[in-house]
């Protein structure tokens, strides 16, 4: 440990390219990954006034850093090929779009570039010490810990956690984007990211069955699509490198989506993904009007709500579309059937507006049970939010290929928006669905007796 502290101290005395004009992220080759690289941490500083021309700073040269502003550190993870992260520039620009802040890219590519993952993971604490040294200098110049925000990707999430522990959890915020699982799964809190590492810790888990960490690590842990396979990512090895990294990187792109403001990804606190899909977790407070947590940059709007919990932790689930902006719009489809016998099956619902735009939801994650005069409420997720629905179609299916075809007799179907509870609810009465046959109809406004 003494050798590590001496190494970190010497790093502040080494001449860096402080006068370098428009610094760029370190680019290495696969050859470098094979032979290995020694650790070298460069801090590249951006503001709204120098959005595309980074200034290299360190603990002896703060450059034009205004320590009274919020400072956001972006910390990447394992780089097995040596190439710069493809998302880095978008993340820098997105942060500067939403707030006048300092953005510091923590470039530890010399250290993260190796084909041997253990070599990279073994350098995470050393990177954290470099950042601790730098933040100490910022504090000496008048910075406040509550204004320090760290966004860590994969191994970078645990680096952020190590920095937070050195300040007894007083950093303002840490966001972990699919924190690394290998070599960290099952580790005690002192050896990984933990909810106590900052005043607010939010985590997006997008690859829990491979490269990411499965268990909760923050005050709020978001699990898109259950945290497993992400829509639009390759399902087999024939998808090339995307098969290995697409799910893992999806956490970054979901965070980026929150910066662009072209949609708001709402998540639903819940005990399990199954309960969320079954519509058991669609309210976020005593009254339906209370807002649910928002994924990404604005997740800290829920910080005060979480402080009311003991412990101040929750898991939140949601589904996404296959591509940007990833938003899904949630509706309930309430069906009261009048079949004499019980029917089990799935429902596909398609909406169409007057302009011909269509959106579809397949509610087939598990069979629904339809009983006479019993209402079944199915959670439908659409990738478009059609404000004025002109036509609806329904398909009922039991999933049987060779068995007899059944009918589902619907006494009343009701469509209601979760995102816009004040929007008029749409109904259809006395409808017979033939199995696997798409049935079209014009909805009507639900009568007040059925609201």
Structure description:
This protein is an alpha/beta fold and 451 residues long. The protein folds into 2 domains: 2-318, Rossmann fold (3-Layer(aba) Sandwich); 329-450, Lipoxygenase-1, CATH 2.60.60. 21% of the residues lie in helices and 27% in strands. It contains 10 helices and 19 strands. The protein has helices at 2-11, 30-35, 88-98, 109-112, 117-121, 124-140, 155-166, 241-260, 273-277, 303-307, and strands at residues 40-46, 55-57, 71-75, 102-108, 148-153, 173-177, 201-204, 220-224, 268-269, 314-318, 329-337, 343-353, 358-370, 375-382, 389-397, 407-417, 426-434, 439-441, 444-445. A 10-stranded mixed β-sheet has the order 2-1-4-3-5-6-7-8-10-9, with helices on both faces. A 5-stranded antiparallel β-sheet has the order 14-11-16-17-19, with no helix packed on it. Helix 3 links the parallel strand 3 (71-75) and strand 4. Helix 1 (2-11) crosses helix 6, helix 3 runs parallel beside helix 8 and helix 6 crosses helix 7. The longest helix is centred in the middle third of the chain and has 20 residues, at 241-260. The radius of gyration is 25 Å and the shape is elongated. The mean pLDDT is 92.
Percent of residues in beta strands: 25-35%
Largest sheet report: 10 strands, mixed
Known CATH architecture of the largest domain: 3-Layer(aba) Sandwich
Instruction: State the distance separating the first and last CA atoms.
Output: 67 Å
| Rg over CA atoms | 25 Å
> Number of DSSP helices?
10
CATH level 3 topology of the largest domain? Rossmann fold
